[in-house]
UniProtKB/TrEMBL annotation:
<keyword id="KW-0813">Transport</keyword>
<keyword id="KW-1003">Cell membrane</keyword>
<dbReference type="InterPro" id="IPR010514">
    <property type="entry name" value="COX_ARM"/>
</dbReference>
<keyword id="KW-0560">Oxidoreductase</keyword>
<keyword id="KW-0249">Electron transport</keyword>
<feature type="transmembrane region" description="Helical">
    <location>
        <begin position="30"/>
        <end position="54"/>
    </location>
</feature>
<dbReference type="InterPro" id="IPR036257">
    <property type="entry name" value="Cyt_c_oxidase_su2_TM_sf"/>
</dbReference>
<dbReference type="Pfam" id="PF00116">
    <property type="entry name" value="COX2"/>
</dbReference>
<dbReference type="InterPro" id="IPR008972">
    <property type="entry name" value="Cupredoxin"/>
</dbReference>
<comment type="function">
    <text>Catalyzes quinol oxidation with the concomitant reduction of oxygen to water. Subunit II transfers the electrons from a quinol to the binuclear center of the catalytic subunit I.</text>
</comment>
<feature type="domain" description="Cytochrome oxidase subunit II transmembrane region profile">
    <location>
        <begin position="8"/>
        <end position="105"/>
    </location>
</feature>
<keyword id="KW-0472">Membrane</keyword>
<keyword id="KW-0564">Palmitate</keyword>
<keyword id="KW-0732">Signal</keyword>
<feature type="region of interest" description="Disordered">
    <location>
        <begin position="269"/>
        <end position="307"/>
    </location>
</feature>
<keyword id="KW-1133">Transmembrane helix</keyword>
<comment type="similarity">
    <text>Belongs to the cytochrome c oxidase subunit 2 family.</text>
</comment>
Length: 307
């Protein structure tokens, strides 16, 4: 209760308990269920502690004294039975929600998911939209009520991608591609951040995730394509240098960029400093091969992911 009072004075909402999507709602429910089950043990213990301390205080001469008392079957049954039952119930809920909230499990919807590729850099976020052919930095936009399939990796230090109102965090790691499904049930701007300490400017690894209507999303895609510069491979290498960044948008990016980032450390290979996307058969073949390798690593790495 004291914590709730203290938090009420903060400018930010207690975001985890104010979910705006199906994944966030399920995680909030699990938090409530866990808290209630734990309270069944904690509250009586706290009450009994206060009562015992008061009743058996030094100056209370009326408290009954039983120096030879040593066992009570009824008391032992309560002390051990109730926590055991609660642990079993809590375990059952945890197992159920663990399978239901597996990060790579698609969200049931009549809409096809939108794929967004996420790359954590020091100290910024790069978002590439492979289906739309655009990219953004420290800003994310997607349609409301549509599943979003995030593919996540890191070009440098491991980080953790988190939009608290939509779902739990998941790690981004070099040489690995993770998958996370989220969805926003209503339009709005949602706080996003890197939830992992990564050095000097880690606190500035924040971004805005905005859910809009389908029409607004399509209009935004066209606006970015018509008004933003392209992201070249040289531009990406400059962007990947350590440092913070303002919000940026790009009308295009090198084809297969995400796959190249994921596989750049395999067999001592390095990312090419050229190849600006698009039309050569060699580039298409290379990108396809990288994606197959990435999917293999993704399958292997799911056990390390978590909401």
């Amino acid at each position: 209760m004291l914590m709730a009072v203290l938090l009420s004075g903060c400018s930010e909402q207690y975001l985890v308990l104010d979910p705006k999507g199906p994944i966030g709602e399920s995680q909030r429910d699990l938090i409530y269920i866990s808290a209630i089950l734990c309270a069944i043990i904690l509250i009586p213990v706290l009450i009994m502690t206060a009562v015992i301390v008061w009743k058996y205080r030094e100056n209370n001469k009326e408290a009954q004294y039983k120096p030879k008392w040593e066992h009570s079957t009824k008391l032992e049954s309560i002390v051990w039975g109730v926590p055991t039952i609660i642990i079993i119930v809590l375990a059952a809920f945890t197992i159920k929600y663990t399978f239901d909230l597996e990060p790579s499990k698609a969200i049931a919807s009549e809409h096809e998911p939108v794929t967004i590729q996420v790359t954590s850099l020091d100290w910024k976020w790069l978002f590439t939209y492979p289906e739309e052919g655009i990219a953004t930095v420290n800003y994310l936009k997607f349609p409301e009520d549509v599943p979003i399939r995030f593919q996540l990796t890191s070009d440098q230090a491991m980080n953790s991608f988190w939009i608290p109102q939509l779902g739990g965090q998941i790690y981004t790691m070099s040489g690995m591609a993770m998958t996370l499904y989220l969805q926003a049930d209503e339009a709005g701007e949602y706080y996003g951040s890197g939830a992992n300490f990564t050095g000097e400017h880690f606190a500035q690894m924040t971004f805005t995730a905005e859910a809009v209507s389908g029409e607004e999303y399509d209009a935004w895609i066209q606006e970015v394509k018509s008004s933003s510069q392209e992201l070249t491979m040289d531009g990406y290498h400059k962007l990947a240098e350590k440092g913070t960044s303002d919000v940026q948008s790009f009308s295009s990016f090198p084809e297969g960029l995400f796959e190249q980032i994921v596989t750049q450390y395999l067999n001592g290979s390095e990312m090419p400093a050229h190849h600006h996307g698009g039309s050569s058969e060699d580039a298409d073949s290379e990108s396809h091969g990288d994606m197959e390798g990435m999917e293999g690593m993704e399958t292997e790495s799911h056990e390390h992911a978590g909401h």
